From TrEMBL:
This is Methylthioribose-1-phosphate isomerase. One of its GO terms (biological process) is L-methionine salvage from methylthioadenosine. GO terms for molecular function: S-methyl-5-thioribose-1-phosphate isomerase activity. HAMAP family: Salvage_MtnA. Belongs to the EIF-2B alpha/beta/delta subunits family. MtnA subfamily. It comes from Stutzerimonas zhaodongensis.
Amino acid sequence: MRERLLAAEKVKAIEWKDGQLHLLDQRKLPLEEIWHTYESAAAVATAIREMIVRGAPAIGISAAYGLVLGLKARLDEGGDWRAALEADFDVLANSRPTAVNLFWALNQMRERLERLKPGDDPLAAAEAQAASIHASDREANLTMAQFGVDLIRKHQGNPQNLLTHCNTGALATGGFGTALGVIRGAHLEGLVECVYADETRPWLQGSRLTAWELAGEGVPVTLNADSAAAHLMKTRGITWVIVGADRITANGDVANKIGTYQLAVLAMHHGVRFMVVAPSSTIDMDLETGDDIPIEERAGHELLEVNGQRFAADVEAFNPVFDVTPADLIDAIVTEKGVVERPNAAKLAALMSRKRLH
Ligand code: MRU
């Protein structure tokens, strides 16, 4: 399946070339494909905050490259680059709060710079570290796709109707996707009748990004309003809800795009299995439960306006963009280190003690 997934690869959203970061503007898709070039850490932080790049692993990869850009500028300035670089760590860390991949990637960069030996070139080392974060995410996607497909097949070998939320594909990662990687793999293995994609209000990652990625590869996809999920589960024979994650805590609670929690509750009621697919860089063993996860709240105008045009009444809007699904609603967490069924603290600790495969 690895070769077939690689052969089907079409979309890329992050590119590092000649010391510059290039990002595909995800706010404009699918109507326009516009790339921007970045040369500073602060500009990359703004791109993350403004959702030009989004999705937990993609945010982490971009932040790592952003740090390389910051380091280059600090070295050019002369003086104490280590002290000066702290401002770049801060600006990147303050871009978005929920996806732990951002902080994980910045930590990887910090640790690499702390391991420099006399005579090492800091810029070359940082660039290699960022590239390795990028490449290992892609590898992790491939491994997770295989594990996820095995899990689907274990329960049922026929083509199935799957439901997904938000965008967890090539646009959100360094490779093929987490949940969408599993879905792509399942399609290649003849296990997909139809993928139902939640539109994912208010940023419409489902309508604009997931539907675009899947349709572009010939995966049968049908769009639905987020609020159609219960009806879909009742009437369309959905067998699995498959989603990604922005942060998974030590007990197996999962923060993901707002609306994921209600899907898990609905899935439990309808006897639909619930799979979370995320690399181990999304697992935060420092937080005990999902109650400790900072949940990003974005500006109300994202709910009140479409394309800058107000359509709602003159009221305040509450716009949390993630929610937390409790571990006991989850059938399986699929990572590149392995699969945890019916997650709990002991199983997550055992998983995380395994060596990272990539
Ligand atoms: O606000 P976004 O678009 O960054 O949110 C993305 C999600 O919630 C994804 O499901 C998650 O990051 C996993 S992406 C592989």
